[in-house]
Amino acid sequence: MAGSQRYIRYIVIAIAFLGLLFYISTSSTTTVPGIPVKDSASSSSSSSSTLQPTTPNDSKSLPPATAPGERMNATFVTLARNSDVWEIARSIRQVEDRFNKKYNYDWVFLNDAEFDDQFKKVTSALTSGNTKYGKIPKEHWSFPEWIDVDKAAKVREDMREKKIIYGDSVSYRHMCRYESGFFFRHPLMLDYEWYWRVEPSIELFCDINYDTFKFMADNKKKYSFVLSLYEYVETIPTLWDSAKAFMKEHPEHIAKDNSMAFLSDDGGNTYNHCHFWSNFEIGNLNWLRSKAYIDYFNKLDRDGGFFYERWGDAPVHSIAAAIMLPKDEMHFFNDIAYYHVPFTHCPTGEQYRMDHKCHCNPKDNFDWQGYSCLTRYFDLNDMKKPEGYEKEQS
Ligand SMILES: Nc1nc2c(ncn2[C@@H]2O[C@H](COP(=O)(O)OP(=O)(O)OP(=O)(O)O)[C@@H](O)[C@H]2O)c(=O)[nH]1
Ligand SMILES: [Mg+2]
Questions:
Q1: For ligand 1, what atom is nearest to the CA of residue 79?
Q2: Fewer CB under 10 Å: which end of the chain, C or N?
Q3: Which residues are tagged catalytic?
């Protein structure tokens, strides 16, 4: 009897021990007292009333493109450093939300150094189209052999003393020269016909509900802008001399019905410094790759002003577009509401802004202010200014 009692006691203890083991192995509580946390095996259940580390937000992919129809042979293009990653992340998110989630166009990133893993990871997670990452060949990001580097260094020193913005920077000059003459010839860009340039920390304020690339193609446009203004004279003292010399050498490249009146108030003798701001551009890559544009760039490059002055790619592109394209191949994208420090383009007209879910403050609109060149562009093209523009002139 004593033997069987002991036997039963062993069985009871063994069952209790097994029960305890089972409880520990299936328990969802952690060791933090008072805060039950679900483990990963049970996190998909939403019926639990215990606190969870995140609310359900599980989908890892972007929704599919919703816009029907064909796509153009087009890409976004961004020149950036690895250190620009969070600033370009902001820009990408805005472009995707306002436009590209409906179209899923590709995105090409270019850099004078190798892109690092973090840059690639963050940017490819945010983009709905394919991403491509290219390194710029050394010969497109260095002093050409005809440049006197001592003379160029002296210019930078003078500009530093005069406190001219980016006046003492070598890399800024390589950047401006690259954007002026080379980005459209990068091997990754050769696959495409159309580009939309995006810089870090820009904003888009309104929904864009149509394919801007298709608009360009259907309407035979080659170059476009949203903001225009006067360039700092100190950065381009002899740019116009070079442009005039080019026009003399190559009259065959000058368009008949051009936009010279945007650039000059005296029929081309002097430059008024108006230019389209090139941190935003939608344009045709084949035009930039044309003999006309390459002849123009080579002439400017030989003259050395990218290094002996500080020629920006904005006036360089603008002069080219204004003299080599007929007026009707240029386009002002009023409907692309845009910010790049320090200027905003916010479309004039409340109804338009409401209809397109804009979030810009119309008081910030630069279009009709004194330093903007948009009025010139409107006058040149006999365009009627939108109702209410006077109220935005302060
Ligand atoms: N890879 C690379 N990209 C550069 C370099 N400098 C500028 N960029 C890129 O070239 C573009 C223009 O440069 P920004 O510094 O924005 O020039 P900016 O618009 O005149 O001046 P900000 O008012 O500072 O924006 C941006 O897309 C930059 O990320 C560089 O040294 N290397
Ligand atoms: Mg910028």
A1: 27
A2: N
A3: 281
Query: Which pTM does this prediction carry?
Result: 0.86
Please give the torsion angle defined by the CA atoms of residues 88, 89, 92 and 97, in that order, rounded to the nearest 10 degrees.
-150
Proximal ligand: closest to the CA of 84: 1
Q: Is the pLDDT of residue 289 over 80?
A: yes
Q: Give the model confidence (pLDDT) of 205-223 as tens digits.
A: 999 999 999 999 999 999 9
Q: Rounded distance, CA 76 to CA 199, Å?
A: 10
Q: Which of 76, 276, 279 to mutate to test the pocket of ligand 1 (most atoms within 8 A of CB)?
A: 279
Alpha carbon 160 to chain centroid, angstroms: 28
The finding on whether 199 has its CB within 6 A of some atom of ligand 1 is: yes
Chain centroid, CA 119 distance in Å: 15
Q: What is the pLDDT of residues 294-332, one digit of tens each?
A: 999 999 999 999 999 999 999 999 999 999 999 999 999
Quick one: which atom of ligand 1 is closest to the CA of 174?
Answer: 31
Q: Quick check: 133 pLDDT over 70?
A: yes
Structure tokens at 226: 């949203």
Please state, in angstroms and rounded to a whole number, the distance separating the CA atoms of residues 25 and 168: 66
Tell me, what's the pLDDT at 42?
Answer: 37
Q: How many CA atoms, within 13 angstroms, populate the side-chain half-sphere of residue 24?
A: 7
**Choice among 36-40, 84-88, 386-390 with the minimum mean pLDDT:** 36-40
Adjacent-strand bridge partners of 340 = 343
Atom from ligand 1 closest to the CA of residue 179: 10
List of residues 6+ apart from 59 with CB closer than 8 A: none
